[in-house]
UniProtKB/TrEMBL annotation:
Organism lineage string: Bacteria, Bacillati, Bacillota, Bacilli, Bacillales
The keyword Magnesium appears for this protein: no
UniProt-listed InterPro entries: Fungal_SecMetab_SDRs (IPR051468), NAD(P)-bd_dom_sf (IPR036291), Sc_DH/Rdtase_CS (IPR020904), SDR_fam (IPR002347)
Transmembrane segments: none
SUPFAM superfamilies, per database record: NAD(P)-binding Rossmann-fold domains
Species for this entry: Paenibacillus zeisoli
Similarity-based family: Belongs to the short-chain dehydrogenases/reductases (SDR) family.
Protein's recorded name: SDR family oxidoreductase
Length: 232
């Protein structure tokens, strides 16, 4: 399978790329900056050769996304999975009275409009059997567990879950699995050192879902990385 993964420079995105390559898949690894060529992602390139294709992909840059999709399309690329992983957490713990609306907008640009832009341009490249669209969400986006904090992050993930539901409805007659996935509280730059889950463990679980080794236990479309239902 050929997977497109956004935000593959570090954290969960990097671990997903590494695990997918290890399992024999091909990966188109989207990174904001190609400086990453001198980073650990390029070590994967040394190990796996042409099965890894590192591409410039800033999810806020629609023109860049459109031209990448067009180039890949012309090359005849077909995608078995799109993993919308890139995300940012801003204004953490900022009270509503002090919220900077530019930060709110920036968060939506990445966490919500990013996956929308990616799907807008890459959906036509998807194969129609055994395929998967995975939007990396967060438990912070559960409306039923809403807490008064992380406003832009939580609201953007909640809206992302709605987008997932809409895609699922759009694609219901095709063999494309569409899920929002809470990856767990992970030890990454975003999750911090105290997190109980490694990004590698989460990546393995999400790959099991993509490969349909694990069937999601949900009537809806929001699960954790083990496939267990998350509250909407
Ligand atoms: P990190 O902060 O460790 O990594 C974020 C990744 O997103 C980096 O690769 C970063 O690239 C990339 N990114 C940020 N902005 C953009 C952009 N505009 N275009 C393209 N890529 C971008 O995050 P995690 O790995 O921890 O998180 C991955 C996903 O999991 C996110 O969607 C997050 O919301 C979600 N999540 C994480 C949790 C956790 O505990 N860590 C808990 C719940 C959900 P660069 O290196 O260029 O900055």
């Amino acid at each position: 399978m050929n997977l497109l993964i956004t935000g593959a420079s570090r954290g969960l995105g990097y671990e997903m790329a590494a695990a997918a390559l290890e399992r024999g898949h091909s990966v188109i690894a989207g990174t904001r900056s190609l400086d990453v060529k001198s980073s650990k992602l390029s070590l994967l390139e040394d190990k796996y050769g042409p099965r890894l294709h590192i591409v410039p992909l800033d999810v806020t840059d629609e023109q860049g996304i459109a031209s990448l999709a067009s180039i890949l399309n012309k090359e005849g690329t077909k995608l078995g999975a799109i993993v919308n992983n890139a995300g940012i957490l801003t204004a953490r713990s900022t009270p509503i009275e002090e919220l900077d609306m530019q930060q709110v907008a920036k968060t939506f640009e990445v966490n919500l409009y990013g996956p929308m832009r990616v799907l807008k341009h890459f959906l036509p490249l998807m194969t129609e059997t055994d395929a998967a669209i995975i939007n990396i969400s967060s438990e912070a986006g559960s409306i039923s567990n809403a807490y008064p904090g992380d406003y832009p992050y939580a609201i953007s993930k909640s809206a992302l879950n709605m987008f997932t539901a809409q895609l699922r409805s759009l694609l219901k007659d095709q063999d494309i699995q569409v899920l929002s996935v809470h990856p767990g509280w992970m030890k990454t730059d975003m999750g911090g050192e105290d997190a109980p889950t490694s990004a590698g463990e989460s990546a393995a679980g999400i790959l099991d879902l993509i490969e349909r080794k694990v069937v999601p236990k949900t009537k809806f479309n929001f699960v954790d990385y083990s496939g267990n239902e998350m509250p909407i």
